[in-house]
């Protein structure tokens, strides 16, 4: 479903790309292309989750349907579970504050990530978090097969959490290197960009843009909207990180051919809003984004066997994959 009204999230996408490592100011063509890609992704997620709901005999999409779509990406699944857990913590903290408690004010506030930072960590007081943080249970978890449940331990880490911690640690290290030399004003701007969101305080616009009522008849609750916004934010970061790798490879080739310095001189311009870390560097372009998306689409889905059926048509059979990530610095699409 094409969006005929033009780009709706140019500023938000610029901010997300900046947080992901883009120090130049991306052009309108680049942000429009990114918006088109993530729009295709959310439409695909809605179609697949609606099909899953129909199999159950339901017309409503559930949280489990969206988790099922990203089940192969253990790190992203665990990050999403953490996001929902801290969202519940944030709600509890607000309820506590409404009853007269002032302790929650220090860490909650207006947070588009639902009480968690960009890497899934807490943004509320630890004492409140320990009391109210709940573990997200899914229908296909082994524990759901049994009526009696073991008490949850504080340090019960599974493979998903280990992969999430490794991926989160990598992003934290990259953020630390970027922010180490920033001034107070630059870091304030960086912090504001980290709050960019597709859904926060714009849920109605997101529902219309995503295609609720057109792609699916399901009426989404707040959790569904927040999960989709969380996944699309991660998609923009993944695309930007991969596009920066494509551009770095291109720059290395040009450097060997003696073209890099001349290209950088031609691309020097006035300082823009997103030019704080490296002045004079050229931003990623639509061709870098297209190549990044092509690479991510070409990567296989873990756990899925590829069977060659033969015939020429098999060569042209393609499937849109959903963006996914790896534990290492490289990223992929599910």
Q: For the record, give the distance between the C-alpha atoms at the N and C termini, rounded to a whole number.
A: 21 Å
Name the average pLDDT.
Answer: 75
Number of strands: 2
Radius of gyration: 21 Å
Low-confidence stretches: 102-110, 273-280, 305-317, 327-334
Tell me what you see in this structure.
There is one protein chain. The chain has 334 residues and is mostly helical. The chain has helices at residues 10-20, 28-55, 63-69, 74-98, 126-132, 159-179, 184-194, 203-210, 222-256, 260-266, 286-298, 313-316, and strands at 323-325, 331-333. A two-stranded antiparallel ribbon has the order 1-2.
Key terms:
single chain; 334 residues; mainly alpha; two-stranded antiparallel ribbon; globular; disordered C terminus
Topology:
Blueprint: H1 10-20, H2 28-55, H3 63-69, H4 74-98, H5 126-132, H6 159-179, H7 184-194, H8 203-210, H9 222-256, H10 260-266, H11 286-298, H12 313-316, E1 323-325, E2 331-333
Antiparallel strand pairs: 1-2
Summarize the structure.
This protein has a two-stranded antiparallel sheet. Residues about 100-110, about 275-280, about 305-315 and about 325-334 have low confidence and may be disordered.
């Amino acid at each position: 479903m094409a969006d005929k009204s033009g780009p709706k999230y140019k500023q938000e996408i610029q901010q997300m790309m900046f947080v992901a490592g883009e120090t130049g100011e991306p052009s309108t063509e680049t942000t429009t292309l990114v918006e088109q890609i993530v729009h295709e992704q959310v439409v695909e997620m809605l179609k697949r989750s609606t099909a899953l709901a129909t199999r159950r005999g339901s017309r409503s999409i559930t949280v489990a349907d969206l988790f099922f779509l990203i089940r192969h990406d253990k790190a992203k699944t665990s990050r999403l579970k953490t996001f929902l857990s801290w969202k519940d913590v944030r709600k509890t903290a607000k309820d506590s504050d409404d009853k007269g408690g002032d302790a929650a004010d220090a860490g909650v506030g207006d947070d588009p990530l639902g009480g968690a930072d960009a890497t899934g960590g807490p943004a509320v007081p630890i004492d409140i978090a320990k009391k109210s943080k709940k573990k997200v249970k899914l229908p296909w978890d082994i524990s759901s097969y049994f009526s009696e449940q073991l008490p949850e331990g504080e340090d019960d880490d599974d493979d998903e959490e280990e992969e999430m911690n490794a991926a989160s640690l990598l992003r934290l290290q990259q953020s630390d290197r970027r922010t180490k030399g920033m001034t107070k004003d630059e870091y304030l701007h960086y912090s504001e960009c980290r709050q960019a969101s597709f859904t926060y305080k714009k849920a109605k616009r997101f529902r219309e843009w995503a295609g609720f009522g057109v792609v699916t008849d399901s009426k989404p609750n707040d959790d569904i909207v927040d999960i989709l916004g969380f996944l699309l934010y991660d998609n923009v970061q993944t695309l930007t990180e991969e596009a920066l790798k494509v551009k770095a490879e291109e720059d290395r080739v040009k450097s060997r051919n003696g073209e890099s310095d001349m290209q950088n001189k031609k691309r020097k311009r006035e300082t823009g809003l997103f030019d704080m870390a490296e002045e004079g560097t050229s931003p990623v372009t639509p061709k870098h984004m297209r190549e990044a998306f092509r690479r991510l689409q070409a990567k296989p889905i873990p756990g899925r066997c590829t069977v060659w059926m033969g015939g020429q048509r098999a060569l042209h059979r393609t499937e849109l994959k959903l963006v996914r990530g790896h534990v290492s610095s490289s990223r992929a699409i599910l």
